[in-house]
């Protein structure tokens, strides 16, 4: 085989397994866009995270945080969409130079298969969901990992009326003042001991209203609490393999602190959920960010 033919085969193979840019999605702080995989025609949402320096912090491990969330979800049988992380160079039609202030040259991918929950509710009801209990589970899971950054667009309903969950980049510890605080919406810190901060772990106004209207009891959240409490320490540690985490200044590796964060918060879940319910399911205020759009994942079933 000639060198020319070999090079062409390598190029063809690369093209087949790469992706093509279609269009941007929404007007968001980060860069979100729709892609298609060349070989299968399947559609994906790509996310390139922007630097948080203008927010006063420098977390650059956001893809690792989101990947860890997926692995931890798998440990407790929770329906977080399986992600991929690929180099931006594997996407044709997208110029990295057009994306200033990105944290790195990686793209975080999730399958594009469904609609955000407000769009689903245009023709259906929450009780039509086949796995409504997963929404209760998701709140508990988010409290555990410190995911205080939930929006309507993070709840995706597929053709079978099954709800899945996306967007876990702003989770976990890293604030030097207190490593039990979580990174969350607007790159601010959130406390597991503040019921108003717990409300950000569900976020969606639609779902908050549902919780309040139904006066959802503690028993609804107990199954996921028990599953998380039952996960062995070694399994949680193993989920962090080959991932690296850093503090708010992108200086100190905090893998050990991140593990401690998860182990400690696991035993605070019961009190956090009970306090939130007793306080009336609150969600504290935060300043409106003009660069933020809640529903970035509206699509076609």
Description of the structure:
This protein has helices spanning 3-16, 62-75, 117-120, 133-145, 195-198, 205-214, 222-229, 233-239, 255-266, 269-278; strands at residues 19-24, 31-37, 43-48, 83-87, 91-92, 106-111, 115-116, 155-157, 163-165, 182-183, 189-190. It is α+β, with helices and mostly antiparallel strands and 301 residues long. It has a six-stranded mixed β-sheet with strand order 4-6-3-2-1-5, covered by helices on one side. A three-stranded antiparallel β-sheet has the order 7-8-9. Strand 2 (31-37) and strand 3 (43-48) form a beta hairpin. Helix 4 packs across helix 7. The longest helix is centred in the first third of the chain and has 14 residues, at 3-16. The protein is globular, with a radius of gyration of 20 Å. It starts with a helix and ends in a 23-residue tail after the last helix.
């Amino acid at each position: 085989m000639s060198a020319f033919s070999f090079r062409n085969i390598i190029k063809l193979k690369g093209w087949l397994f790469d992706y093509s840019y279609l269009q941007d999605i929404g007007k968001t702080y980060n860069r979100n866009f729709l892609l298609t995989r060349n070989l299968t025609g399947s559609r994906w949402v790509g996310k390139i995270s922007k630097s948080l320096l203008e927010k006063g912090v420098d977390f650059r491990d956001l893809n690792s945080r989101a990947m860890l969330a997926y692995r931890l979800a798998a440990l407790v049988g929770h329906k977080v969409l399986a992600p991929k992380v690929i180099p931006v160079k594997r996407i044709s039609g997208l110029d990295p130079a057009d994306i200033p202030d990105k944290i790195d040259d990686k793209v975080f991918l999730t399958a594009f298969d469904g609609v955000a929950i407000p769009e689903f509710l245009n023709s259906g009801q929450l009780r039509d969901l086949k796995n409504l209990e997963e929404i209760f589970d998701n709140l508990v899971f988010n409290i555990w990992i410190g995911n205080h950054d939930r929006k309507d667009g993070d709840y995706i309903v597929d053709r079978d009326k099954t709800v899945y969950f996306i967007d876990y980049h702003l989770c976990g510890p890293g604030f030097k003042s207190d490593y039990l605080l979580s990174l969350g919406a607007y790159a601010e810190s959130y406390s597991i001991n503040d019921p108003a901060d717990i409300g950000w772990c569900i976020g969606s106004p639609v779902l908050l209203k549902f919780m309040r209207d139904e006066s959802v009891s503690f028993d609804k959240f107990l199954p996921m609490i028990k599953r998380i409490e039952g996960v062995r320490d070694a399994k949680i540690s193993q989920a962090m393999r080959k991932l690296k985490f850093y503090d708010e200044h992108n200086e100190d590796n905090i893998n050990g602190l991140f593990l401690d964060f998860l182990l400690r918060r696991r035993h605070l879940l019961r009190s956090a959920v009970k306090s939130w319910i007793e306080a009336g399911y609150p969600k504290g205020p935060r300043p409106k960010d003009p660069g933020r759009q809640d529903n970035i994942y509206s699509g076609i079933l």
